Amino acid sequence: MKKVSFFLMFLMVFGSFSIFAANGLTYENSFELPGEEKTVTANGEKSCRHGRVLNPCDAAVRAISSSDYLSFEQIDVDGNGEWAISDVTVFLNALSGSIALPDANLDINGDGRTNIADVSHILNVFSVGCLHKKVVDKGFYSTCREFGLTDGSHCAYCGKIFEEQLQIPKDSHVYVNDVCYNCGLWNPEFCRHTYGAWQTVTPAGCVTKGERMRVCPLCESVEKQTVPECGHRWKDWTTVKEATIFEAGEQTRQCAVCGQIEKREIPVYVPTDAEKAAMARKVAEEIAERIDASVSKDATDLERVSKAAEIVSEYCSRCVYTTEGKDYRQPYGVFVKGEYSCAGATRALGLVLECMGYEWTHKNENQWTHQWCVLEMDGQIGYADGQVGWAGYGKHPVDED
User: Fold this and answer.
1) Contact 27, 44 (CB under 8 A)
2) In the Cβ-directed half-sphere of 315, how many Cα atoms lie within 13 Å?
3) Are 130 and 121 in contact (CB under 8 A)?
4) pLDDT for residue 98 is more than 50
5) 124, 151, 349, 382 — which has fewest CB within 10 A?
6) Are 336 and 348 in contact, with CB atoms under 8 Å apart?
7) Residue predicted with more confidence, 323 or 52
8) Are the beta carbons of 382 and 394 closer than 8 angstroms?
9) What is the distance between the alpha carbons of residues 264 and 262, in angstroms, rounded to a whole number?
């Protein structure tokens, strides 16, 4: 084998060059030919099947015959499953003796030798793209019942169409006594139709019409009908969000046919008066238990009641003050709904005091003035204010009586 420099490869890919072949002749730089596939000889230059000129580095470069195509394996010299410029590098290293490959792997152009002409062939393949393998797609004649197709061809590797197959129109029927002489079908204008079973062309949807058809076997006439919408087939409603006293909930259901989802709102939950009272008492009992667990056994009544007033006042600070509606005056408004007035704060604190075992009276009840709880603590009459969180012996600081 003779050594070939990488500089030579560079010249072969990017520029024109001259090489002295074994017989001493000089071959000039290659040139492109028109796109049609043919073999051309010009000063010893031979084209490949793809209409590209092989750089004629060796006098032994052969013309590729009209039936010759390179296989993928022939070009993939390094055997990595793809062909690229790396295959040229492997080829040149093999020629220089750096690596050893069987000659069969390197005889790309099939002339029985391994030389620089094979490198030229690889480079030309790179400039072409797919190693097209032409496959003929046989056509067929039309009849009075079937369309025909012309012959065509495509590449077995990449699918490129060389010659498109064109549809040949059906032949005309030749009727003799209302029956086609060629195919035996009746003339549709005179046929006594005996239609077959209905066949679905387009299924009807829940909200879209469909289509069905049936065919007469005597004349192949087609009758079509529109199929009405079938309507949704809803599954049961499923609650995805429960309604609360603050916001609405949501339910969904799905059509078993098309999968469409329908939604509906669950109204905000409005509890009964009894339910409101029960919810408020539950909160009051929890507050009483917290106070009992947080103070010592020796704590005075004032200490306990003060703690209750502070907690109710904290609830009020999280609420909205209002005098509209009917819940602002009740413990339910303070503990659950988030709205209050001084009357509601007083009744909320009073409920907590009841859960703690104290009796109390409502000062200024149902009057448009400030209100609070009056009760006995440590053997003394005192007050407890749930709105401001105060508690003490004697009269309330704003008591004018």
Assistant:
1) yes
2) 32
3) no
4) yes
5) 151
6) no
7) 323
8) yes
9) 7
